[in-house]
Write a structure and sequence with these properties.
Strand content: 5-15%
Number of domains: 2
Oligomer: single chain
Distance between the termini: 42 Å
CATH class of the largest domain: Alpha Beta
Largest sheet: 5 strands, mixed
Order of helices and strands: HHHEHHEHEHEEEHEHEHEEEEHHHHHHHH
Family: Belongs to the bacterial solute-binding protein SsuA/TauA family.
Protein name: ABC-type nitrate/sulfonate/bicarbonate transport system, periplasmic component
Subcellular location: Periplasm
InterPro entries: SsuA/THI5 (IPR015168)
Organism: Jonquetella anthropi DSM 22815
Shape: globular
Structural class: alpha/beta
CATH superfamily of the largest domain: Periplasmic binding protein-like II
């Protein structure tokens, strides 16, 4: 009986999620249709239209485009069947042929190719920012962290954020000076709220959640706009076997990536609704999260791949001796823009200048940005 009740509860919960997803797709149907109509797209070949693309992403706000593409209806409007897998082990899944495209971290991607995983960097996704060292209010200064319970992950010697932040804050980078733990961002947040941790490193939405719930504060955040040159972050990776077998579908998926980012820039309130539903956080946290990436920190979500940014990131890794096994790679072995260039994607800089800057200019306060987001889509709160 107990198992039946649990099964029923799970069924109801899953049904609720699916219903919410379907409702959002219907609600955004006219917006997405208008976006897609600007492109002269031929129907996909039958073998591509019938194929279900497996798209992976990690539970990090940098990779929001995956769920935006799914729940806004963009994938469907482009004639594709797509299943998204959150928190999947991207390199392993691609090696086994179970994943076709993914949003993946910078070092994850570099290491995967080095060990023979058949993936390549197919497009830009995130140029940096939105990673934080969040502290409880008991922590007043950086030196208060020494000897305290923190969650900084299992390999801080190869964590560029940790190496940069400790240098900037003037505190030891040797993790032995702290009582360190390793757990998911969500678990670390709730551990801090429960008084079990004094600080933790994370991506959003957990930095924004701490600010929203007034449970902690951000001591320092990632900034890839370094004096030595702008760095970079997560990328869109694609399985070579998939791309070679389905070249038109591969290009269509990359076009979908650009449309998902366009949707976020032009309809941030609706994007935040999708984000909050998928990441199980309040809508306000979703809005705060998107504001940081779309405005406060710059136009950090992008499809314009910048090779120099990537080289700068490698150079910074060398400076701190982070991942010496991969920080001297030849980027030409990793990048292939063939499928992106065939996608028909519009120019990112032109899109920002003509469609985003006039409505959401850089430097807006969160209050003003939020108000404009509400007005753009006629939201009634």
């Amino acid at each position: 009986m107990k198992k039946s009740l649990v099964a029923l509860a799970l069924s109801i919960a899953l049904g609720t999620v699916l219903t919410a997803s379907s409702a959002m797709a219907v609600d955004n149907e006219s917006i997405v249709a208008a976006m897609v109509s600007k492109y002269s797209l031929e129907p996909l070949p039958k073998e591509d239209a019938d194929y279900t693309v497996n798209l992976g992403y990690y539970n990090c706000d940098h990779m929001t485009a995956a769920c935006i593409g799914k729940d806004s209806g963009i994938f469907k409007a482009l004639g594709m069947k797509v299943e998204i897998t959150g928190n999947g082990k991207v390199p392993e899944a691609m090696s086994a042929g179970r994943m076709d495209m993914a949003y993946a971290g910078w070092t994850t991607t570099l290491r995967a190719v080095q060990v023979g995983t058949p993936l390549f960097i197919a497009a830009e996704n995130h140029t940096g920012g939105a990673e934080y060292l969040v502290c409880s209010f008991k922590i007043k200064t950086p030196h208060d962290l020494i000897g305290k319970k923190i969650c900084a992950g299992g390999d801080t010697a190869n964590d560029l954020n940790w190496q940069e932040w400790t240098a900037q804050l003037g505190i030891p980078n040797d993790i032995k000076n702290y009582e360190n733990y390793s757990m998911s961002d969500a678990d670390a947040y709730f551990a801090m709220v429960a008084g079990k941790l004094d600080a933790f490193t994370c991506c959003d939405p957990w930095g924004s959640m701490a600010e929203y719930e007034k449970t902690g504060w951000v001591m320092v955040r990632q900034n890839t706009q370094r004096e030595s040159g702008h760095g970079t972050c997560c990328k869109v990776c694609m399985n070579y076997n998939f791309a070679k077998k389905h070249p038109k579908l591969a290009s269509r998926m990359l076009l979908a990536h650009t449309l998902s980012l366009q949707f976020m820039y032009l309809h941030p309130y609706k994007a935040a609704q999708i984000f909050s539903a998928n990441y199980n956080v309040p809508l306000e946290v979703g809005l705060m999260t998107l504001y940081k990436k779309l405005n406060e920190e710059g136009r950090t979500l992008s499809w314009k791949l910048n090779r120099q940014y990537m080289q700068n990131q490698l150079d910074t890794m060398k400076k701190y001796h982070v991942r010496d096994d991969i920080n001297s790679v030849n980027l030409d072995d990793y990048i292939d823009l063939t499928y992106f260039n065939a996608s028909g994607a519009i120019d990112f800089d032109k899109f920002i200048a003509e469609q985003v800057d006039p409505v959401f200019p850089l430097g807006m306060s969160y209050k003003d940005w939020r108000a404009k987001a509400v007005a753009v889509d006629g939201i009634v709160e």
